[in-house]
Amino acid sequence: MQSFVGLFTLYPPSILIAVLVIGLLVGSFLNVVIYRLPKMMEADWRQQCSELLCSADTTTNPAPSETFNLAVPNSRCPVCNHNIRAWENIPVISYLFLRGKCSACKAPISLRYPTIELATGLLSVAVIYMLGFNYAGLAGLSFTWCLIALTMIDVDTQLLPDDITLPLLWLGLIVNYFGWYTSLENALWGAVAGYLSLWSFYWLFKLITGKEGMGYGDFKLLAALGAWMGWQMLPQIILLSSVVGAVLGISLMIIKGRDKNIPIPFGPYLAIAGWIAFLWGSDINRAYLQFVMPH
After folding, report:
1. Structural contact between residues 1 and 134, judged by C-beta atoms closer than 8 angstroms
2. What gap in Å lies between CA 17 and CA 12, rounded to an integer?
3. pLDDT digits over 66-81, tens only?
4. Does the predicted TM-score (pTM) go above 0.85?
């Protein structure tokens, strides 16, 4: 690690380029996670229901289904089932080379795939640029990649999978055992306060309106953010998420004419606000204090 840190000090552009390439590759994998993980969860729920319903009937067994996970089957065109070859799966480059169309049936490929790949690459570069090529920077990459996956899954399904939120929470506590971002004590109480704050708001809102304002996944996500950054950053994250939500919500209504009565998941706003606070939270707090208490 020390040799790599020295290389970053001597030739920072080369390290950032390498991080960009790795980020693009990870973004390609995140596209798989975003699409497949909710389907894997749904299949698991169906299997559990099937086993429960068939438990009383020993003569009926659910038929085995095709193996479906993050590794298999190979990626295919959703229109013609063409198996995507390795050269067709190079992040961003393949999309440009194929002109956004399947090589077999010429069906359009969603612009979303290269967008997620490029965003993952650029955000990865921002993390290493801000934190440095060290243990804290590498952990920050994992934090960023998890938030990207959670954001897009929540946009698609209004779900925040425990398979990502809970490991993210535990990883935050582990890295702060070493004091990389805050103390372990602050991280522990950040996780507790993050969960309980939204949990309390959920039940208060439900008692007043009879409706559910958010899901339990939001509680776990804010708990994870608190575990990474400490309880002191939670007010800023909640405030930033409200600002991000207002900006994006109004933009969606103006650009797409989205019905204001259609629920918009809160998870993406938390994730975006959490990532901003992760990199620039201290600068934002310092600027705010200088504004309200000028010397």
Report:
1. yes
2. 9
3. 777 777 778 887 778 7
4. yes
Q: Tell which residue, 92, 35, 102, 40, has the closest CA to residue 66.
A: 40
Residue with tokens 């967008």: 115
The backbone torsions φ and ψ at residue 272, rounded to the nearest 5 degrees and listed phi first, read -65, -45
Separation between Cα atoms, residue 194 and residue 238, nearest integer Å: 10
Beta bridge partners of 101: 108
Distance CA 169, CA 176 (A): 11
With 60 as the cut, is the pLDDT of residue 64 above it?
Answer: no
User: What length does the chain have?
Assistant: 295
pLDDT at 272 over 80: yes
Q: Please work out, in degrees rounded to the nearest 5, the angle formed at the alpha carbon of residue 132 by the alpha carbons of 129 and 137.
A: 100
Alpha helices, H only, 210-263 = 216-229, 234-255
SS3 percent helix, strand, coil of the chain, rounded to 5, is 70, 0, 25
Decide: 134 and 5 in contact? Cβ < 8 Å: yes
CA-nearest of 293, 290, 184, 190 to 233 is 190
Query: Which of 194, 200, 202 lies closest to 223, judged by CA?
Result: 194
Nearest to 86 by CA among 100, 69, 103: 103
Across 93-118, b (16+ Cβ under 10 Å) vs e yields: ebbeeeeeebbeeeeebeeebbebbb
